[in-house]
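Contributing: when you submit paired examples, paste them exactly as shown. First protein:
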Amino acid sequence: MSKVYETVIGLEVHVELASKTKIFCGCSTAFGGAPNSHTCPVCTGMPGSLPVLNKQVVEYAIAVGLATNCSITQYCKFDRKNYFYPDNPQNYQISQLYLPICRNGGGEIETAAGKKTVGIHEIHMEEDAGKLNHSGATISTSDSSAVDYNRAGVPLIEIVSEPDMRSAAEARAYMENLKAILEYTDVCDCKMQEGSLRCDANISIMPEGAKEFGTRAEIKNLNSFRALERAISYEVERQKEVLEDGGHVVQ
């Protein structure tokens, strides 16, 4: 007889802010445009270029923090997260790894069992990466890839939840509630089909009643409520099969 498992879900929600210019330069954040037409030495990572923080980005981040019951950090800073992405011209991302602007918030969602509070661990500001355009239908069938840096440097906030959700339906309710807050505060157009609101889902399972979480797997860049629910449901079943067959979930 198979075990009964409990699902544990945390979401990292990426929000493109509605400022007219990028986070560290004066280039346009408008969606689309000819490739590499919304770029300058700063957002393409040219040597000697110096970033200057966009004040409106900070104001938007604080507005979301207040709307989600967060504490606003009185002293925060940016950090360089060094890793190679082909669509990241600097080979690092300017983010807030250690001192995020907002912490320890949360909000209520409606569940089948009634209201439930989902905690928010932190909200931090960062810059978006560019975009790869492949000549084929997929990366594996592509003969070449071109890089469009128009999106590089577009301001983001990342809203990191606590692992408080226990089903795909709860994760969807949390995302829908967050989308309503972002639209009400007017900090994001929330056009999920354009990637201005997307999320990464961290999913693990553990035997019912266990105190220690299982190993989590992350599904990245989900840009619709339906995709979020389907991805979580699939991943939960996949992890159950792995554990029942005596395997181990790999992070």
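Second protein:
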Amino acid sequence: MSSQGQPAKDTVRWGILSTARINRALIGPLEASPRSELVAVASRTFDGAQEYAKENSIPRAFGSYEEMLADPEIDAVYISLPNHLHCEWSVAAAESGKHVLCEKPLVLTLAELYRIEAATLANSVTLFEAFMYLHHPQTRRLQEMVRSGQLGRLEKIRSHFSFELPASKSDNIRLQADMGGGSLWDIGVYPVSFSVVMADAGLPDEVSATQSTGDTGVDIDFDGEMRFANGVVAHISCSFRQPLKMEATLIGNERTVTVDEPWKPGAEGKESEVHSRGPDGEKDTVVFPAVDPYRCEVAAMEACILDGAAPVVPLTLSKRILRTVLALYESAESGRPVVLSPD
């Protein structure tokens, strides 16, 4: 591991931009990796950053985001700010020459995505959206199963993510419309991204959706359907008022695969399983070791920065996910199907 103040030849020196709760999922993997070094955290106040740094054994604290981005001893930043701030600080980080791992959703509009795309190209940095599950061996194996024809012809995808967020917590950022709140933006992007990746046919041709809106003006229940050019139909659902539930199913004309832990496989130190059923009812189970998906995500960033690897979640994929989400929202608000133009 490189010593602080020396050029990092074989490690990535990280700074965390914000003191959000979700940081806890990444701090452990950063500290455990021999190719990463967590060196700093930034907050809006120095006292807040210093307290957080002390609690999490982070060497340095910055009292502003700008100060961290100006530090030449930081190679990459993890951005876990509220959704509406992702574009501003991703662009600022890229323009400071920092590589960026930004929480999902990366952005809320196509104009924001184009800004990020331009900034990364102009400054030759890696930036990708933090869909940790897409880096996990379980997801990679599912892709292989579909592409190799083990399911026959993929016909349907069904996926869901829900948890209970009481209406009494109206100050929660997930319920704030002006901060990019809503169940689809927060957790629905998992089923949407899963559908786009597994269908493997680019953008859907057409989407339709319905939503239920809460008192703060954001969707608290959302259901959507996507139809792809290769005939795959994907159904997604998400909710802030249903019990915790995460599941995904891939239905082929020869086999059906169910995934019990699609979004956080291995995150709690437990093995994950994928169950396959054939036309005669025979069952097959593939067990995956307890690999932390956040560690997989960190390793992917390390590979991009240190080895020149291509991102697992390139901006082209983020753009497809974003356009699909925007079309789903448009359909839910208009009450009509929405046809998407090609990539």
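If you have annotations for the second protein, write them as plain sentences, like these:
Residues 1-8 have pLDDT under 50 and may be disordered.
The two ends are 42 Å apart (CA to CA).
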